[in-house]
Write a sequence for this structure.
């Protein structure tokens, strides 16, 4: 039986390219999604063996989506596609349960192998990433947003994308009061006291793209 894969990227042309590469190698593309929330939903419905996701996506980034998938659908392995080689991104992804971290510049060569490695229960990192992880462990640098809870990271991304407190509450399925509480908490932890500062922080950390 071919390995079933869900593709998640907010650019249809990228998904088309990935589909072509993977189908040519014998993989079954079970479904597609264009943001992190949709990814969680489609994985929950289809239960694919692997979800291949971009890191930078609207509403919910690939790392936080991977964290949710690991909790809700542990049998599905997640693989991230990214341009980021910085240690905090890699370590945060591994902490989120990601089983493959593939650089977009090497996707054509690495992705098929990464999927097979993940299904076999191993972790695959694109060449050049391994030394990054080792150096991170040796220097004990803090991971991305280590001070923030998962929910606070979600709120950070949505605020940076220009969502209002009411819109954030609807997206997260919580009350406006709870959404505002998360916003206040993350601002306090980061010692940032205005929306513009949160946006700059989110861009600097790669949570959203400028």
């Amino acid at each position: 039986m071919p390995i079933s894969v869900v593709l998640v990227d907010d650019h249809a042309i990228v998904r088309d390219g990935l589909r072509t590469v993977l189908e040519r190698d014998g993989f079954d593309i079970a479904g597609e999604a264009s943001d992190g929330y949709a990814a969680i939903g489609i994985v929950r419905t289809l239960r694919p063996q692997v979800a291949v996701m971009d890191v930078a996506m609207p509403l919910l980034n690939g790392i936080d989506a991977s964290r949710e998938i690991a909790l809700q659908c542990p049998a599905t392995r997640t693989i991230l596609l990214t341009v980021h080689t910085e240690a905090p991104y890699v370590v945060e992804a591994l902490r989120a349960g990601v089983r493959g971290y593939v650089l977009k510049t090497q996707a054509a060569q690495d992705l098929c192998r990464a999927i097979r490695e993940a299904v076999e229960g191993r972790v695959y990192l694109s060449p050049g990433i391994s030394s990054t992880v080792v150096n991170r462990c040796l220097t004990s640098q803090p991971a991305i947003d280590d001070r923030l809870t998962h929910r606070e990271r979600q709120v950070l991304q949505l605020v940076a994308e220009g969502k209002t407190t009411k819109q954030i509450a609807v997206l997260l399925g919580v009350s406006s009061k709870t959404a505002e509480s998360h916003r206040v908490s993350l601002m306090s932890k980061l010692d940032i006291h205005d929306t513009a500062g949160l946006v700059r922080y989110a861009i600097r950390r790669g949570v959203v793209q400028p």
